[in-house]
Amino acid sequence: MRKARRSARWASAVMRPTRTSSARSAPFGRRASLPNRLSRRLAGMMRSSERSAGRRGQRDTQSIKERRPMSRNDLTARMRRLLCAIAPLAAACVLGVSASTGGAGAMLLGGALGLGLAHTAIAQPAAPPPPAARDEFRVTLLGTGSPAPNMRRFGPGVLVQAGGKVLLIDCGRGVTQRLRQAGLKLGQVDALFITHLHSDHIVGIPDLWLTGWLEAEYAQRPGPFVVYGPVGTRQLMDGLTSAFDWDIKARIADQNLKPDVIRAEVTEFQQGVIYDRDGVKVTAITVDHGELLNPAFGFRVDYAGRSVTVSGDTRFSENLIAQAAGSDLLIHQVAAVRPELLKNPVIKVILAHHTKPDEAGVVFSRVKPRLAVFYHFVLLGMPGTPPVNEKDVFEQARQTYDGPLLIGEDLMAFRLDAGSVVQIAPRAP
Asked: What is the CATH class of 137-425?
C-alpha cells in the first residue's frame, strides 16, 4: 500500500506542468490547463484505487500478516488500467497543448507516461489527398532521406502522376509503404525510372517488384514490371530474378500467379527522351555524381505544357541547369556538413559527390522554377559532431537564391497547374 501511495505522489509530481509567465501562457487560454486536469484526474484515480483496496482489506478475514504485498507486476497492471482509462483526456492534452505550445504538451506526457500514451494520441497517419484526376499533373515526395535509417525520411523516391500515368523515380527504402500512404496500390506503378545504381536508390525494388505481383488488394500489377535505368539495370534485375528464384517458382505453383507479371521489362538508356506516351514525356539528363559513380541521371517529366525536373544524385551540374530550363518544379538533392568536419577524409569524399546548399541555390537561381524543393538530404556528422539540420540547409541556400523554396518532407505533394505549383499535402506524420 505504501508503494502505491508513493506511485500516486510521483505521478502527480511528474505530471505537474512547468510554470510559465502570465504573458507566455495567456494566449493559450483554457487549453493550457489540460495538463493540470490530467494530473489531477490521474492522482484522484490512484487515491480512489487505494481507498477501494483499503475497504476490501477491512472486509477480508485474512490477517494483514498473511496478506501478500502488492508486487511490481500488480502495480504495473494497475497503472496500465489507469492509463487506458485516461487515454481520451491524454489525447486531448497532446493534440490541444502541442498545437498551442509547439510540442510542450507532448513532451510533458512523454516524460511522465512513456511513449505509449503519446503514440495513442498522435501516431495516426494523415489521410492521403484525393486520387489524382486523369488530366492532373501531381508530384509526391515518397522518400527524402539518405542511406541513414530515419523514420521521418525514407529512402529516395518521387512519384509523378500525369495524363493517367503513374511513374516512379527511384525506389529506396520504404517507398512501397509510402506508396500505400499516398493512396496507391503497388501494381498501379506503370514504370520505374532509376537515376543510378547506388543501393539507397534501388533497395526497395524487390519489394515493389515481388509484392506488386501478388493478387492482394494492395498489389495487382496487370503486366510485366517495367524498368528504365542506366547501363547495369538489366544485370540488376537478372540478379534479383535469380536471387528470388525459389520464391517465384513457389508462388507460381502454389498461388497460380502469372509468370508474365513477374517478368522484368528493362530499358537501358543514355541522355534523351526515353518515354513518350499519351502526352507524357520523360527525358533522361546526364548529371555528374563523380568519376567512379557514373553513369548517373536526373529526369525531366513534361505533360500539357508543365514540367518537373528531379536531379538525382549529382554535383553542381551545368547540364542539369540547361536541361531543366523552364521547369515549373525543380526537386534537387543536397548534402551538407559542419565546417569543422570539412577536412575529414571520409566526409570529403561523400561531399564531393553531391551538391552543397549554396551550389543548389545557384542552380535554382539560373533555372528559375516556379518552386524549388530540396529532397534526398545527405546531412553528414561524426561521433561527437552532430549533422547540420534542415534549417541550416535552407539558410545556406538563401545565400545564393531568393526565390520560392521548400524543405521537402516525405509525402509532400504538389499539383502543377497552368502557371502555378500548388502544395496539396503536408509532410508525413
From this structure: alpha beta
Task: List own/partner pairs for 60-69 with CB under 8 A and 24 or more apart.
Answer: none
Catalytic residues: 200
> Each residue of 98-145: pLDDT tens digit?
333 333 332 322 333 333 333 333 344 567 889 999 999 999 999 999
Give the tens place of pLDDT for each residue, 11-20.
Answer: 433 333 333 3
Print burial letters for 343-357: b (CB count within 10 Å at least 16), e (below 16): eeeebeeebebbbbb
| Cis peptide upstream of residue 35 (ω within 30 degrees of 0) | no
CB 168 within 8 A of CB 212: no
pLDDT tens-digit series, residues 234-261: 999 999 999 999 999 999 999 999 999 9
- Choose among 417, 321, 395, 392: nearest CA to 363: 321
DSSP state, 266? E
- Burial (Cβ within 10 Å: 0-12, 13-18, ≥19) of residue 129: middle
Task: List the chain domain ranges.
Answer: 2-122, 137-425
